What we know:
The chain has 254 residues and is α/β, with parallel strands linked by helices. It has one domain: P-loop containing nucleotide triphosphate hydrolases (Rossmann fold), CATH 3.40.50.300. Helix content is 40%, strand content 28%. The protein has eight helices and twelve strands. The protein has helices spanning 40-47, 72-78, 95-107, 113-126, 144-158, 174-191, 227-236, 238-253; strands at residues 2-11, 14-24, 29-33, 54-62, 65-66, 80-83, 90-94, 137-138, 162-166, 194-198, 212-217, 220-225. Helix 5 (144-158) packs parallel to helix 6 (174-191). The chain starts with a strand and ends with a helix.
Amino acid sequence: MLVVQNLHARVGDKDILKGVNLEIPEGEIHVVMGPNGVGKSTMGHVLLGHKSYEQTAGRIILDGTDITDFDTAQRAKAGLFLAFQYPVSIPGLRVSEYLRNLYCLRHNVQVGVAEFRKIVREKLDMLNIDRSALSRYLNDGFSGGEMKRLEMLQLALIKPKVAILDEIDSGVDVDAQKTVAEVITRLRETDGTSFVIITHYQRLLNFVKPDKVHVVLDGRVTRSGDMSLVQALEREGYDWVRQMGETASASASL
């Protein structure tokens, strides 16, 4: 579904991604972990074509189509979705207007206000979001948990091919984490959505069982494995991965 080949990117004159390679099949959940400042969130933004980042090498292939030269809107319409770590608030833009426009763009349809309210009603109940939220301004005065639920509501409405969740578990309680996990599981099972979950912590993984775990250090994927890798990181920390890499490099040079 999503293939990332030798992805390099920088901000200004600073190289951040230095050759990321990933392959995420349809319906699989992949977790990306690593300490602060190693390029995890940058990877998500580069995949969506954020203009603050310059992609200097590599290819991005979504469902067999090379989208490397697509702009952000084209990538989103092709089926990529990014849930932000810090969602932007937009006073003056009502949630209902934003969601309806998003739905119409993604599915290439036109639906009226009344019809859209029927479409969104089930999703609101599933996510335990009060219907009054539709009349509020986008993320304006929302708590951290409310913002994350709104991100999940967008995800449930547009049903992307690949969803990148950037620290979706940051700053939310256990109930919100369970809600996030339920949406991930449902979309994976019903629509074959693939997920890239960027996180520092194991907490969300108590509710979502990933197919694969990747560790990013110094702008590269340096190690991949299953849930046992997460457990090893909890015990040993990231220095353990660094030391393993150094040992492997030393052995290769002998």
